[in-house]
Specification:
- One of its GO terms (molecular function) is fructose-6-phosphate binding.
- It catalyses: beta-D-fructose 6-phosphate + ATP = beta-D-fructose 1,6-bisphosphate + ADP + H(+).
- Mg(2+) binds at residue 103.
- The active site is at residue 150.
- The chain is an alpha/beta fold.
- Helix content is 40%, strand content 17%.
- It has 24 helices and 25 strands.
- The strands form five sheets. Strands 12, 13, 14, 15, 16, 17, 22 and 23 form an eight-stranded mixed β-sheet that branches. The protein has a seven-stranded mixed β-sheet with strand order 3-2-1-4-5-10-11, sandwiched between helices.
- Helix 14 links the parallel strand 12 and strand 13.
- It is globular and about 90 Å long.
Length: 755
Amino acid sequence: MIFLSLSVFCHVGMNAAVRAVVRMGIYVGAKVYFIHEGYQGMVDGGDNIKEASWESVSSMLQVGGTVIGSARCKDFRTHEGRLRAALNLVQRGITNLCVIGGDGSLTGANLFREEWSGLLDELVQSGQISEEAAQTHSALHIVGMVGSIDNDFCGTDMTIGTDSALHRIIEVVDAIMTTAQSHQRTFVLEVMGRHCGYLALVSALACGADWVLIPEMPPKDGWEEQMCHKLSESRLRGSRLNIIIVAEGATDRHGNPISSNTVKDLVVRCLGFDTRVTILGHVQRGGTPSAFDRILASRMGVEAVLALLEASPGTPACVVSLCGNQAVRLPLMECVQMTQEVQKAMDEKRFEEAVKLRGRSFENNLNTYKLLSHRKIDAELPRSSFNVAVLNVGAPAAGMNAAVRSAVRVGITEGHTLFAVNDGFEGFSKGQIKEIKWGDVGGWTGQGGSLLGTKRTLPAKHIDKIAEQMRIHNINALLVIGGFEAYLGLLELQAARSKHAELCVPMVMVPATVSNNIPGSDLSIGADTALNAITDTCDRIKQSASGTKRRVFIIETMGGYCGYLATVGGLAAGADAAYIYEEPFDIRDLQSNVEHLTEKMKTSIQRGLVLRNENCSENYTTDFIYQLYSEEGKGVFDCRKNVLGHMQQVQTHTHLHTHTNTVYHIFVCFVGRVFANTEDSACLLGMRRRALVFQPVIQLKDETDFVHRIPKEQWWLRLRPLMKILAKYKTSYDVSDSGQLEHIVRLRAKDISAI
């Protein structure tokens, strides 16, 4: 069987997908071909179609764009061009295509597949191929992966390149906010998104922008006055800057374009604010891929190869998609048709429907932005007697402040009174509690750490004083944002309800820890930022050896006993090995890894990377592994070590940690609840595969290894064979959890039922 990796248009993260397809294809015993310059290379043939080797995709994970080139192709849109492309493929025995691109590229691939039999008949009739060759290559199988920074393809939560583009935008916004703060300026940022406002919407949500303009939901008539009123109110409350984000395809309700310069002129004319315009342009397409994009592309690439392996002549062309935390396969043309329906709805000014067609993620993000950015006047707020306390517990994690901001503003919108607790449960017991208002959390989204203050202290020894403070402040509900200590704390508070009636209130925990070791949730706030810190550092460390030959780096990551950071960071950085507590190893394994790396160093790679979780072994320490590799690699490679430490913890958060839109449901569950002592009144809000779910913490006890502070079952362990395969180890790969072909209508029904 022969595979082909084809890149049609250039987006950050594509190289990780190309690397995964090539190495997984070789792993299953197939030949893999590159087609350079997209469809143009397929039409032209010749040297544009070359067989790929394992080494040809080395050292490309951190490279933006696509190393095999990309080009638009007018010839492929013609029947004659597709006929030439078919001839080039048959001559090389290629009958499986892995296409990475947008909806136009994927639609072209599907048309090519539908015409395949007819194209072969024409080639036989013209004598360019034999009837035997036509029979041998009678079926063409297509699997697509979506590469688009706009995230405009229906059927997947995230397309390859989107996360990296959002990183570029947030980096620019963070830089601009410092100068805007100094000079009391208003900045209008124009981001890409001619037909889709995802980048504008999510970046506005991530940075707490004052206003956002997107194609799917044009502002209502009179928006100019409303926007200026909001900007003016913001300044009156003490803000020294305003941020407005405009998608390049933004229009008003009548289809008139709204450009960044139009917005600037409006602000200057109506308010007299010093206003600047920044158009980001193609900087959003470039740069180094984020950890998320590398992992997504690697998983999708492997899934694409598995889909091709399982394809039969009757299998429709499919696209590999991401739904929640799970890979799924969807019929390609169903997704394309749904994507086209979105544009049709926008053209016909059915904007509410267009938003819904974009999918659950887009709709939730839009609703969350509206909720967090537009404050209702006091007369519009519902009246409630509920007092809600918010606190951070455990080690600081990037994204904690964004979660607190969301909680405070949603709670106020619902008519509740919010109280901020400083320094966790310890501060709670000392009465470090004060009311927190809408404006108090302005500008919190971009700040790392915990502005409320956080400590690891558990509540058990302060339980009497905490209960007293809850009575004094009449606390009716509790939101705890933190790590494993927050989970333990909620269990202790629930256990103390029999003695303290004040604790019989609804309690919700939101996991926030870089270690990602909380049972009941696949992902925690802070983990994505830590992964990006690890990936960025590994890239820099490997780059430092570019002028040397054959060097191996031993990197120690955080995580306690949880190997999430070491494993997923290793997958994103292209590690050769990652040592973790969950997968026991001994000296024989270490020796085998050294020998494997030595062999690779002799034949191909010049730099090696080994990650070690800080508590993976009591005896096989980072120093021990460093000394072992140094000794056994003598004459072949030298060794360096690096302990990343708290740099994984203190960076400002990534945009993924602003997606706290489900906080709204926390406050909905408070309404009408005064006395609560049932199991489901103390819950953890976690992401499980495709859905965000509330789970009673007491029911999670059986899923927890309390000694090592990790869940007994962890989804990411299934990624370890993938990391080993991509590092050229011979290992088995479990396909039981691989995506199955679904239909987009059925998928959307699941999404709706999960809300």
